[in-house]
Amino acid sequence: MSIKKRFTIAPDLASGLRNSIQSASANLGQLHYDMMSLDIIERDPKNPRQLQLSFDEMLNGINKSDSDYAVKLKEREALIELSESVKKIGIKNAIEVYKDGVKYRIITGERRYWAAMLAQQKSVPVRISQKPDEFHLRYTQWVENINRQDLSLWEKLNNLLLMADAYMQSRQQTLTEEVIQKLLGVSSIQAYRYAALLKADDKLVKLIQLGKLNNLKLVQQLVTMKDLGARNQMIAWIFSSKDEVTSLAAYKLVAGKTVRSALKTEKPIQLGKVKNQHIAKQLIKIALSDERLEKHRHIFQSIDWSSSVAIKRAFQDLFKKIESEFTRDEMVVW
Amino acid sequence: MKIIAVVNNKGGVGKTTTSRILAEYFSIIKHKKVLALDMDPQANFSNRYLKMEIDPYQQEGRIPPLHPSYDPHAKDDEDWDGRSSIAGIFFGEMVFPYTTYIDTLEISPSHSSKLLLAEAVTREEVVQKVYDQLSKFLNLADVRSSYDMVIIDTPPSKGPVTISVVRAATHLLIPSIMEPQPIEGIYGMIHLWKSETLRRPNHDPLHLIGVLPNSFDRRGIIHKDHYDSLKHEMPDYVLQSKIARRLIYAEADADGAVPPSIFMYPDKNLAKQEVLLACQEIEERMSSYVD
Known about the structure:
heterodimer; A: alpha/beta; Conserved hypothetical protein from pyrococcus furiosus pfu- 392566-001, ParB domain; Arc Repressor Mutant, subunit A; 3 domains; 14 helices; 5 strands; flat; B: alpha/beta; Rossmann fold; seven-stranded mixed sheet; two-stranded antiparallel ribbon; 40% helix
């Protein structure tokens, strides 16, 4: 039996060709690197990582009478340290820029840019990108900045507000909890808190700006607090405090109120019996109207309301969901 | 000005033949002002249009003939040895293209030893300079205003000279025989195209015209099988036209061949017909890229 010989390109070569072509067409211009003179690079005035330091202060030192002396000194020292390494080995990671008018504006790498200035470099390596759309720019800066420990809540809030504005502009939609969770890769409770942060009123924003409120969870508690009287009292108390406030427990002590735990006891409680299954149905419906349980609603859609066992199981599920979704602080205080 | 680089790091796949065909098509048939550049130390492309010389005191290859405008007694030419090659760009020399028997075709020939020297540089900062040299030359206002097309023949390598050509080019054409080794050469060139594409700014892309099957033999199945298989892997980048294996291409390549160009053969000549089709397809593919 004879088999007719066929010729074909070796499989590894074939996949090499295919992949190279795909990569080239998908990533056109993605690795456009160059050396760029520092004087045609400019900072992004809206970068959320705002240095307190001015350019002049960076070069010539800070006035001791400055109210932000300590913060600025710390920033300057960090930049000087970075610039020392730049003097020795130069800048290794390119600064990402895009053309804006006659100059190139920084997307990421502002600290490297300052350090290069301090180290008196003439030019730095840059990666030249297309001008990103506003939302994408703010998103990139968020991702770049969020890993920095020293980013204040004020800086985060500004970044988030810019992102929300840009999201609204480009997609005609508000930045919801779900979108925040997906984009920022945070837990649902973190996303819930960031969404609350976006709803903070002027008074709260002022407190955040002053650095008296730097705790996301606390801000969320204040934003979602139903008792407006208590809320205003707390805000007034935080305004009057000298330092950053990290917990409301302190206020409750100061105000002479005992801190009430939402769950008074850890012992199991029997919730009683009802004869009419419609009441059970109503209870579940009311519970599921809370937005924190929204994502679990589908689980309760196919309950067999004629079976008492099924209803019992549904309630067990409901309690579990409430326990997992509501932190103790968020439990309703009567 | 369009700049077509004819590349493949395997030798003997038809780079020089393809360069010739393109240079003659655009100048003779399309009446474009064409500049031919020979970056291959073997100098075969140059030799088709100029009588390249052998310098007995240089071990390597060929040097260009004396330039017709050279006057040893003229004051202006005092610092010039009377020969000009495209390799001069790597050594800070002026480049004076030579006229050819075709009115609208000029050539800046190879210079074997100089090109070999440029190809052999290894020091990083020198290599970087070599990379950018050709594109600097082709960006000169004088050059841009003098020509519509530049056709560049390259050495069979992926060295600094080839990279300088890829950096300067607007279009890339890869001639290849449909056999295993030359196809590996295609892979090398696709890779070079990819790196260059990623590196370039968006407004100045390097267009890949595609692979031109050369020396195609319809008698066996090996060429057809490899062609089909290549077409399957990169459907957008394999040309429909094929240049067949014909004695006539070797004959047209011989010194003193009459007529000197394939485009001067009678219209019913099969080789002329297939070459015309290939050139038209290349031209169509080039115009399909919007700059």
